[in-house]
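Hey L., structure's done. Input below.
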Amino acid sequence: MKTSNYIFVMLLTLLSGNAAAQQSISGIISDKKGKPVICANIYFEGSYGGTISDSTGHFELISDLTGEQVFTISFIGFETYMRILDLTGKDTILSIILKDEVSEINEVVFTAGLFSASDEKKSATLSSYDIASTASAVGDIYGAYATMPGSQKVGEEGMLFVRGGEGYETKTYMDGMLVQSPYFSSMPDVPTRGRFSPLLFSETLFSTGGYSAEYGHALSSIVDLSTNGLETEDKASVAVMSVGANASWAKRWEKSSLAVTGLYANSTLTHKLFKPYVDWTKAPVLGDGMLMFRQQIGENGLLKSFGSFNSMSMRMNYDNFEAGTMDDMKLDNLNFYTNTSYTDQLSEKWLIRTGVAYSRDSENINYVGVPVTTVTTGASMKLTLANLVSENFKTRFGGDFNRGWYSQTVTTDSTIRMELVDNQPSLFVETECKISKTIALRTGIRAEHSSLLQSLALLPRISAAYKTGTYSQFSFAWGKYRQKPENEYLQFAPALSPERADHYILNFQYRKHRRTFRVEGYLKYYDELVKFTSRYSPVAADYNNNGYGRAQGIDLFWRDSESLRGSDYWISYSYLNTSRDYQDYPESAAPSFASVHNLSLVYKRFFERLKTLCGITYSFASGRPYNDMNTAEFMTGKTKPYNDISLNITYLTTLYNRDCIIHLNITNLLGFNNVFGYNYAGVPNENGVYASQAIVPTTGTMAVLMFMISL
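Output:
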């Protein structure tokens, strides 16, 4: 339910002009063949003011800055253009030719299973702007990556389900360290979203499989978030939204900076305007605060400290259709997370990255007067060293230590408390070798130990890439992965073994200027998945690791910022064939979250004369399987296909010589009646029929309106 203004800050930074204009910087941007570069980002370093090029490559940037300023143009597929302009109040006309990225022509890179969002990394598939401005995501990192191939549309959860894997099989890292609770707490069948804004990060990596030996504790996927460096300037902004208010402030000193944000969100007004399908007795309310401090140390060192705190509360009448009652359910959640990291270049050939993190998440769910309090605490330490042996050979090695505490307390006539403590030390080493200009090989191994499970594993991983032409290459990845079972099982059966998966991935990518095509085939084998006789059974003997599974499929991705005049779009499609025998399944079957076909179309266009950005996202998923309790066959039911169209419109203007934006985001624009599955009663009625209830979205069409002004 968290809707923040982070996306709008980015749009303002990239697109808005300045009303107190004294001079114009305009011109044409083209590539070396003379073709116009559309939607290139144009701005002055350290300034809010910016714009983008139109369908002819033309741009005009109005500014009241004076003196020498760093004029910058960036776009994926080209080297960043930087030039110092002496602004004296006179209009300037430029003709700029962007150069192809060196990596696009000369370098072979590893792409199997990897999507990167960055404004700086040459091999990036998306930019951070793309992540923030995707209409269906509403500023959520995980929502944006849900439009990438390999992800599943699981609308009642909100987490990332990747290539036949459960949501818990995707792990999040921040500055290299594991994040214990990356999502907000939520009620049953009410989707969650990520706790962190995409604008906090200079780069995000989404790996659908085959990730390197540096990452562990994840069966299917990882999201690695790299926080921003020093703030570019002093700035502040205030936003008023239909769901709350947000304020941010940043201060820059010579070698340090401090940024603070605060958010209050309340869904009461939204629920009055758009009737929810949930009987809320207290609309979701969120308070959120963030602090980010940066300190440059020496010539290359950077110390980064990040802290966030949020409090959420909501209450509903839960439809207990089996009993025919509306049961009172209340949720309160407090979360604290802090992360401090340090990076430096020790010498010409040695790099270091180290850090510590701590988190505490307290969730209290009170159901019909019975409180259940769950506290999850985590502490992490990590050290990574990289040695650049030569231009074509480098090695990385290091280790991390994760300590987790988990406790759950249930209070009825008596108090029942269950606790777990686990220490997970890990070591890894990885080498990367460019055998030639067209062939690269990466090999690594990771060692993981769990004190709770008393298990030690050696997990080898290999990636290779072969460049077939100037703009095309093949990549391959294979690796072994494992993950500790969920705490809800371990609290009753702490002797369970880790769940395991093997990944096989073959990838082909063609990328030239503003067009990218990827096709990727994969095969995953699961083993030692947790099975149980009945969920929440307190008997340890009811749990075992006899489960197994398989997932295979093909992912397609096409992005084109060139063919359609003034437009940028991408299409992703995934085909998934998967089955599992796990949990309380009596036999192997496709799990309830798995759709065979998933399709996303994301389209964006900036109308420069109108100072308006429009974006639209269409999402489709074929029907998901469910177990109809009134038939003899298992998991043969099928929901109707999922459809969604989301739209956002951002208008850039000024008020009292201050940059402003008005933003409207509409989800499920056409009001599709989606169904995610069905809940069934545990026992049949007097007619021998198991009653059922459809799992549907919490709302139909919903809109969020926001006004923001920079101070």
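The first strand starts at residue 23 and ends at 30. Residues 1-21 have pLDDT under 50 and may be disordered.

-- N.
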